[in-house]
Design brief:
Layout: H1 4-21, H2 28-35, H3 39-51, E1 56-58, E2 64-66, H4 77-85, H5 88-91, H6 109-125, H7 128-137
Antiparallel strand pairs: 1-2
Helix pairs in contact: 1-2, 1-3, 1-4, 1-7, 2-3, 4-6
GO molecular function: DNA-binding transcription factor activity
Organism: Bizionia argentinensis JUB59
Pfam families: Rrf2
């Protein structure tokens, strides 16, 4: 459903949020290791997140990536998905066809509309704070 870059971006954002709660910045190397992504690929993803004001990048010896504590609860998954994948998840065909709409539907068009609407609602209502706190409390996990 999401691109690999988007999956890594969501996991990286959660990891950064977790560390930001403790006032820690995290390095590119630590993030890449945590999300099991190559460093160069992770760097590009993080650049997109910085460019879209989702995370902050601090240069220097004590630099790294962080999210302002006060901002963690206002960052929705939808912001991350749009920053990396754009809005194609809201309008794309469930089978990946170039032309698929109500006038020219693919075989799963009508069923996929409901799934897409549910996904949209989840992305718009789920924030980084609740995900980070679920991981911190042991309710959910970021690694397998």
């Amino acid at each position: 459903m999401f691109s690999k870059a988007c999956e890594y971006g969501i996991k990286a954002s959660i990891f950064i949020a977790l560390n930001s709660y403790h006032g820690k910045r995290v390095s590119l190397k630590a993030i890449a290791k945590e999300v099991a992504s190559p460093e160069a690929f992770t760097a590009k993803i993080l650049q997109d997140l910085v460019r879209h004001d989702i995370i902050n990048s601090v240069k220097g010896a004590h630099g790294g990536f962080e999210i302002e504590k006060n901002d963690i609860s206002s960052i929705k998954l939808e912001h991350i998905v749009r920053a990396i994948d754009g809005d194609k998840i809201y309008s794309g065909c469930g089978l990946g066809l170039q032309t698929c709409d109500e006038n020219h539907p693919c075989p799963v068009h009508d069923k996929f509309v409901d799934i897409r609407n549910g996904l949209k609602q989840m992305l718009e209502t789920t924030n980084l704070e609740e995900l980070a706190l679920d991981i911190k409390s042991g309710i959910s996990f970021l690694k397998t």
